[in-house]
Amino acid sequence: MTESSAALTDREFMDALLDLVIPPNASGSLPGAGALGLSPGVALALQADPLLGPIVEAGLQAVRAAARSQHPGGLPGMTPEAGTKLVEAQLSAHPFFMMGLLRYVYPAYYQHPQALIGIGEPPRPPFPEGFDVEPTGAALLEKLQSRRRAG
Amino acid sequence: MLNEPVGVLVIGAGASGAAFAWSIADVGTSVLCLDQGPWMRQQDYPSNGLDWESRGMADYSTSPNVRRLAADYPVNEQDSAISPLMFNAVGGSTILWAAHFPRLTPGDFRTKTEDGVGEDWPIDYQTLEPYFSLNDRMMGVSGLAGDPAYPYHEPPLPPLPLGKTGNMLASGFEKLGWHWWPSDSAILSREYEGRAPCINLGPCLTGCAQGAKASTDITYWPAAQRKGVQLRTGCRVREITVRPDGMADGVLYYDADGELQEQKAEIVVVACNGIGTPRLLLNSKNRHHPDGLANSSGLVGKNLMFHPYAMVTGVFEEPLRGRRGPVGCSFWSHEFYRTDHSRGFVRGYSFEAVRGFGPAQTALWGMVHGLVPWGADHHSAFARTYDHTATLLGITEDLADEANTVTLDPELTDAHGIPAPKITYRLSDNSQKMLSHAVERATEALTAAGAVETAAMPLVREAGWHLMGTARMGHDPKTSVVNERGQAHDVKNLFIVDGSIFVTAGGVNPTSTIQALALYVADSIKKNLATLFDPA
To answer: What's the pTM value of the predicted model, to 2 decimals?
Structure first.
């Protein structure tokens, strides 16, 4: 296992990082991405991505090394404020790292039932129940009727 | 292995191949279609699961280079400003399309006469009108009759509801006094021909689990098979073979087990889209056709046209319930469709009103535009944007340019060793001016509708849905690949029925016109069987 892939599969580190990326909200209705247990899935997806995977892994490695140099507990031992500052400091050297990570973290987060409930969506797939949609406004339809080309 | 010869062999089971096969079956001869992809199953579509957005970026991505499924072939797009998109299965790209279903307008068929650009088509709108109507009935089209931007036609089903998003956006167009009209949509607003109506799932672009969105696997193909058309899946055609007299003899193809097969046919019909078709013709070189089949004009693979897309999204204060409903089917506008020289460009574009994004797409879109950050402010920014966005797409007319090409990549191949297509495409100055205009006008319309903030993408790279022009139609064999009946000038028993034969692109989605052309070509063959192979 390479040092960089070790960062990607370091569960404690990844959970801490994902909780910085999407932290829990103040009311507690939306959990942090790390607390939701998304790290293994995100790691697997990145390992299978030949383009973004290496870019993100390099950034993760840099973040983890920097965190370890600043705190004996690494990123998991740091406060959110300190952790955020440290991650931001790495972005100049690894500008696409966070975009690559978010490409997988956001979809994983917003398909989780707890996140869906938290944003006011039903925790179910679109099919088979579907959704209701507001009808076309009557006033708008009237305006169109007056402009219709005759048959 | 040599198979039993057939009367008509259709290559490709997508939008055009399905329509053509269904129609030509009336002749009574044997009809066989080969497609490199499989049959799809509605129970497998992403909207059956919570991970529907993730899968739309993976195995149901619109890009073959992202999906990399067994049915896909790679496309070298490094030298293209726009990424070509497609789906390879029975139904083709209609599996993953939005089903926004405008027709080309009458003026799109005579741009040279009207504006001195491009070429006039050898046929006109009125020639295609009966086939547009037939196709609307076969696909199941919802819409509102009487759009002043078009000759009068009656969609077979009433229009889809605009929803709150569409109502809001339409109010902006009303304030500005701009044309808008509910879209013709190949999505059922009511039960039709045994298919259930739309229940507003939202993610049309990853297949319709309800079967309300028309895709040719559930519209044309069941009807074609009832007429006796055979369809073989998992079959990738390597080349079209020719007889000693230069006429098409059939094809060599790899079957689902990877075995090379030979299939002879009296008529060969190519329906592989604007990239797959020139790829196949260029890979079918032989003694009679050293530069590729049907390529004496040198135009096979040239004049590639996309529709360059501009996208502007508005953020509204009110929640819009926007991700519910058919994502791409709300209304269109032809306000800027015709040439107005004061704008600084020729020809024009349409607007397509699009409903809201799903939650993951909202977060990713917000990231790209700097509106939804990661970190402590993520949730508050997300709450301001999710369910609060609506989008206008500017679909601009691309003018044919011989420098925009599909060629065979000298190195990249598919899983069978067949050369992959290489796309060379540059955005013209005219297109760039048109895109800039579309961004400005879309921003104006969104603001008039009440948007408090807008974010623009002046050119959407991942929007190469519409693949046109690479085997164009015309009277003159020196300046076109097929004649006015879709028949190759050089090979009388070879026909092309997909977007390759477009002469101009218009500024609207092309599938309605592609299918009308396929039905028209089939009808031309049926009416002219006795003289089909006579010299011109």
So the answer is: 0.97
